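Render this sequence as a predicted structure.
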Amino acid sequence: MQDWDIIIVGAGAAGLTAALYSCRKQLRTLIISRDVGGQTNLTNHIENYPGVDPQPGPTLMQKFLAQAQSFGAELLQDKVVLVEKTKNTFQLTLEGGKKVNTRAVILAQGKEPTKLNIPGESTFFGNGLSTCVTCDGPLFKKKTVVVIGGGNAAVEGAIELAGLCEKVYLVHRRDIFRADEVTVKKLSMYKNLVLLLNTVPIKINGQKFVTGLNVKNAKSDKTTELAVDGVFSEIGHEADISLVQNLVKTNEQNEIIVDDRCKTSCQGIFACGDITQVPYKQTVIAAGEGAKAALEAHRYLTGAL
């Protein structure tokens, strides 16, 4: 007998829903994650989850967790660093060296914000540097901030902040935005929003909190310091699939490739949520994919496949 029937890596909407469904199938289920909530935690106001009144993301995710635990799911707050296949079972190694065994694995670890990789980033994260306008924007009301990025998240974030802040800089390394054209057109509506194109961030300044951002024009090489109270990095998210690097197929974005039933290229390993190539990274979609992954894992474990 193995320790677990299913181990789920990640405790966001996908992982917690997978746990709920696997437990209802009477499978011994362990969730392994450092924290609970995933990307949904970064949303302060969810109003598009069907059947649920508007509420903060963390509140909704705690409800997901409580429901999964009520059916028997267990949560281990740790990090999986390696998944190894041994015949028909899997051994997972945790950050501290502990090993746990399971008959099937569901990968639902989501993605992490892409790093700027500039001086001051680690020092000021949480002290003026944020990766979530929705979460932290209200903290900078009537102040001056800068948003870094050129996709929808960055442009939408800059527009949201322009309605709150005294002044907003939008720094983008190219002269053309990747965001939807209809969204980009809205930028011109705000007189307190300054576009700095062909510009890259090179250093975050401050003492205890952020006081400025050094940027460089990619064409002229001229360096300027923007006096700001906050920096919002909205340059995307990255998938960390190092724990299963040699077990499953991935695409160019390091997303795990799954079929329409959440099966990966490795029998016994399933994946769901933002870590996969499935489009539209939304809480409701992640939850649906988590349910599919658990049901398919049950079919695998009961020999129905």
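Summary. The mean pLDDT is 94. The CA atoms of residues 44 and 167 lie 22 Å apart.
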